[in-house]
Specification:
By secondary structure, the chain is of the alpha+beta class. The chain folds into three domains: about 60-160 and about 215-295, Aldehyde Oxidoreductase, domain 3 (Alpha-Beta Complex); about 310-480 and about 635-805, Aldehyde Oxidoreductase, domain 4 (2-Layer Sandwich), CATH 3.30.365; about 485-630, 2-Layer Sandwich (Aldehyde Oxidoreductase, domain 4). It has 20 helices and 30 strands. Mean pLDDT is about 95; it is low at about 1-30. One of its GO terms (molecular function) is 2 iron, 2 sulfur cluster binding. This is Xanthine dehydrogenase molybdopterin binding subunit. InterPro entries: Ald_Oxase/Xan_DH_a/b, Ald_Oxase/Xan_DH_a/b_sf, Ald_Oxase/xanthine_DH-like, AldOxase/xan_DH_MoCoBD1, AldOxase/xan_DH_MoCoBD2, AldOxase/xan_DH_Mopterin-bd_sf, Xanthine_DH_Mopterin-bd_su.
Amino acid sequence: MRTLTKLDGDSSRARRELHDHIQGSGPLARHTVDSSGQRQAGSASFHESAEKHVTGKAAYIDDFLLPADALHVALGLSPVAHGTLTQLDLRKVKEAPGVVDAITFHEVPGHTDIGPVFPGDPIFVDQAISYAGQCLFAVAATSLQAARRAVTLATISINEQPASLDPVGATEREEFVRPTHVQTRGDWQQALDQAEQIVEGELFVGGQEHFYLEGQACVVHPTEDEGVIVHTSNQHPSETQKLVAEVLDIPFHAVTVEVRRMGGGFGGKETQASPWACIAAIIARRTGKTVRLRLPRSDDMHVTGKRHPFHNRYRLAIDAEGVIQGGEITVIGDCGYSPDLSDAIVDRAMFHADNAYSLGDAQVVGHRAKTHTASNTAFRGFGGPQGMMIIEAAMDDIARQIGEDPLTVRKRNFYRDGREVTHYGQQVDQRQLLHTLVETLESDSDYWARRKTVSDFNATSPVIKKGLALTPVKFGISFTAQHLNQAGALLHVYTDGSVMINHGGTEMGQGLHTKICQVVARELGLDLEKVRITATRTDKVPNTSPTAASSGADLNGMAARDAASKLRERLFDFAAVHFAEGLDREGMRLEEGMLVAGIGESERRIPWGELVQTAYLNRISLSEKGFYATPLIHYDRSVGQGRPFYYYAFGAAVAEVSVDTLSGEYQVDRVDILHDVGDSLNPAIDIGQVEGGFIQGMGWLTSEELKWNDKGVLVSDGPATYKIPTFGDLPPIFNVALLEGHPNSMASLYRSKAVGEPPFMLGICVWSALRDALSSLTDYAISPHLDTPATPERVMLAANAIRKKAL
């Protein structure tokens, strides 16, 4: 593992090291970036838009040039969390300077409910108000300033009612957005009744704002028929196409949705980018003008959902060595006012309530609580991180109860031979890899030597306490909704030999488009420069799944590979019969921009350009579509058993922290990460994903605190009151490496593994290390209660509480 260190005050050295880092050499290098040669799948390569990103050439929705008569939209939002709309008078709004149109629930020509899976999401309020920030009306004007001024002129009367903001109370009253689900394996009650010891606890896990750099935005053009073209920052173009068509009451084929790139998504643009496209489309059709709708940051944070906060509880039976025999876990997801994707999100929290550990005979219960807040939605990990938190809390608690190091307890409870089946009935393949990975990191990070150093330091330091923790990740890869595990691609080869690929995935900075281009280049034996990708469009690849669930490269890469391999085989068939010399069909291959047939003295090489041109002149199709559907996966909700995941990705991280136990202030001193991506598609991008995922996960658990007032109004609605981690929060020592030599055991894309979501949960080690530091106040006899985010205030209160408990 190589160390990524902070640049010091020597500016010349800093500039030199930064240059070396970009070039892939020097002390900051993590993986050499291939700047020459083929740069196909499996090699490190720059992001396909990297230069555009840093030079400002990359166009986002707000960069699009608009016609002179384009309209700009502002929204009228509910100031209360719960109530009944009794009056909405827009006469002054419509008379305001620059206003061209104003619409409410009653101006929607088609469907008024745009719930993505289940109903419950009205495009505008009719009467019932369900959260502060819910959309009441929209105003279109000749300038954004005019639209925003006009919004303030509306006359609004609301009969306000008390807001339900407590998901635990909602659960007790059985106020749910979807029914409770249960997964059971074995006789969990008997395991508790016959337990040598029982350990139990509860934990509040806070939500998280997506805080994408580019907010929700779209531009909609009316077409010459009844349709629209929608440019949107969006993870699910096909769903937006469907909803816009339904709202306008027109066929799906009349709506084209295009996404070139997003300035971040993280799940926040999977379902919750669609409402703004629907509103803009209605106005575009009514006025015949191009419409732009971009949410200001504060409005964005008020109107869109977050990561689900969870209230989790566990009660586990353990033996004398801390090995889990069985028990029960309950997770309560705070879903907000409507279902959105909460059914699947709470399901995934349940699937991951075991993380890397065998629960034995266990029951896992998942509740979907309804509250008067914005409907919470997808966020990197999709409920998995919230589910993992409760079992990681249990591991620390078990260790304190039996007087062992938490790492020892974790390793004893890992999935292993004889204990290889999850509580939902799936066998954990490559389970030994988890042991190998953790043991490797344990050794490479000098865990036990550092444990002694930390313990010795704490023994002589009454105020500053150090903490150390190593936590694993086992994350299931696939959409838990089976039908979403499919993808398509469209490939064109032009007569000059250049290649264009289009697929159903969307680019939000994660490097998906780069990997797809590398896949095509590898299949066709070309340099990456020969392959270009186009914007994701619903009129090129239809009926696509969202870019989510860490499946972007797995699904779309396989579809692109399918298209490229079919085209390659067609060219081989043509070449075998066309060229006069007669080529060996069986031994044909494409490499280094050549068709190669035969070996040794009989080898024949035909340049790619010549092959393509000749094929065209002989009327051979140079276009192909590809398709892929993930095999094997299934899940029966009626019994809570099945195989919802095609495979598991693993990882582990070690964090060392220093905590001022009087003030609660702390710093992360060092982090070591070893992560499993199978055979990496692009090590440079994958390491970046691991680093970014970890930092985002650390932010979720430490600094990113969502706050509502007692009326249900979000008060942490901007960067001044909501704190995401920054460059300055990087640990001074940050070692990141990919596990090598362990390809995916399943038939995935070149035996790679997904890398989008799994690294997020590596951040749990920081929270566990904070608990370790606090536990040292009692000589590790008591496990502290520490809800998340573990802000300095919470850490200080936890320190005070554990001191009192020790008296």
